[in-house]
Amino acid sequence: MGEDLVAATQVLRSDGEILEWAESAPGAPVAIDAPLSLPRGRASLEVRGPPHFRACDLELRARGIPFFPLTLGPMRMLTARGIALRKSLEREAHPVIESYPGGVQDLLGWPRKGRGIERLRRAMRRDGFSGSVVAVSITHDELDSVACALAALRWAEGRAIVLGDPDEGQIALVGPSAEIQRRVRSRGRRAMPSAPGLPRPRRPT
């Protein structure tokens, strides 16, 4: 990535723990790995039926990035939690953006965690990360959080790839630098791998 990036991670399980952590970093931008809005025209998660996709979701699909629709089974609970957490963080003056670690990993040419945590760690170290990512004990959720933190940093700097309609909901991703693009091409790899092994989404309801 052409720069040194030090990552520090901590496992927090409850919303209360997350909000307590946020108090230690007043005003820091936060990226949440969860849908933070509903598709335009959809009144709630409880009412079944379309629409299932936001503009940002359709832009992910157009880029070949696999994802689960927010109206799919357990994604409903994740979406409701994400929306509530965003409101709590914004009340404390934290800028909040939705992100998607799988999308960040695809765009940067990193293997997704499903292909092995160690492969993902190696890719992140190769591209300038140090700190938590070198810890053997790091979890796949922590590696995903590092990808989201990078998206939050780039978003705050005005350097993120932002998908979607600001009036409906946006997703912040990180694209490859010119250096990484050259590296990916020299290895004969695609810039956006298809993430083999990701379960095929079922029909949303």
β content, as a range?
Answer: 5-15%
- Summarize the main sheet: 4 strands, mixed
Neighbour order of strands in the largest sheet: 2-3-6-5
Write down how many β-strands occur, each being a DSSP E stretch of 2 or more residues: 6
- Mean residue pLDDT: 84
- Poorly predicted sequence stretches spanning 5 or more consecutive residues: 178-205
Radius of gyration: 17 Å
Give the end-to-end Cα distance, rounded to a whole number of Å.
Answer: 40 Å
Number of helices: 7
Please give the share of residues in helix: 25-40%
Order of helices and strands: EHEHHEHHEHEEH
How would you sum up the global shape? globular
Structural class by secondary-structure content: alpha/beta
Oligomer: single chain
Overview of this structure, please?
The chain is α/β, with parallel strands linked by helices and 205 residues long. It has a domain of 140 residues. Helix 4 crosses helix 6. It starts with a strand and ends in a 19-residue tail after the last helix.
